[in-house]
Amino acid sequence: MAEGKTRHMFAGGNTAEGFFSYYDHILPQEKAERIIILKGGPGVGKSTFMKKIASQMLKEGFDVEYMHCSSDPDSLDGVVFPKKNTALIDGTAPHIVDPKNPGAVDEIINLGEFWDNDGFSENKEKIMSINRKKGIAYQRAYRYIHAAYAIYKDNEALYGMAVHNGKANVVISQVVSEIFDRIGVSEVTGKQRRLFASAITPKGFVNHIPTLITTDRVIIIKGEPGTGTERLLERTILASTERGINTETYYCALNPRKPEHIVIPELDVSITTMNPPHFVEGIRGEEINFNDFVDESILEQYQDDIEFNREESGRLLNKAMQVLKQAKKYHDDLESYYIPNMNFDSVQKCQEAVLNSLLRL
Question: For 148, phi and psi rounded to 5 degrees?
Fold first, then answer.
């Protein structure tokens, strides 16, 4: 039996708007057969629980989508088994998930049932103190990210002033018309799945673009902020929706409302933004450079400011990542209080029972 294929992405991110969740798009309720929501504190084994089940499902030939954690990219926030229309999701803070259709779709497994409550009493004050410090660290990191984005937006405004929108519109219209050639508007509205391909993490900027941009046709768009690269994506999303074609849209790690990559499985087409820091070797395709629509003479007097903005924005993002690393350390400290009080034999039995039920589904 051939092993299943894997894809990797993020369902939530550390953004200029704070922690931003696209958890509702991990597996939409109307499509899901089963969503298992894992509860429990740090160190109870939620990520390991999901990894072990995913590993076995891969061996059984099922494809797996891994939802990585932006606060610790080596950990998981969820796994999806598309052929089973089933997902396991970490439902704890900051991405609290509760059942929307209990019993019909959702169920809760509380791994906290397998810990020794008495073991926490003597460390109550320490746990509460670490939690406070962890919360403060995240708020500081979000302020740095927000500040970096404010400076980034100045470059966006400067380039926006110099771009020739008419020329860009012509190219955008040509690309969209060609992608949807002879496909008429549908009475059925296409669905849009929203997630992140990349994230700002304690380990730096992490992306999983190569596992997502795997279509036969790839259109690569380049361009400085403000040149309108996202307009091509937005027009493509709208055209897909109007034609009843489903899309996967991956949003900017900094601005979670700005699309950066779109995959249209039905048409075997992807459009991907390739600018630093998400430049990926190995992805080839047709290129459209929105910098070609910029009047450089308008920008000449702002070159020093543009360079200053790039450096300051990058410096603030690096500082945010350092603070996220400190928040991760606090999280690890919390785990050290939970792990000794866990009955992992019981957790394993629960994990085996879930795996068997998935294979029977």
Answer: -60, -40
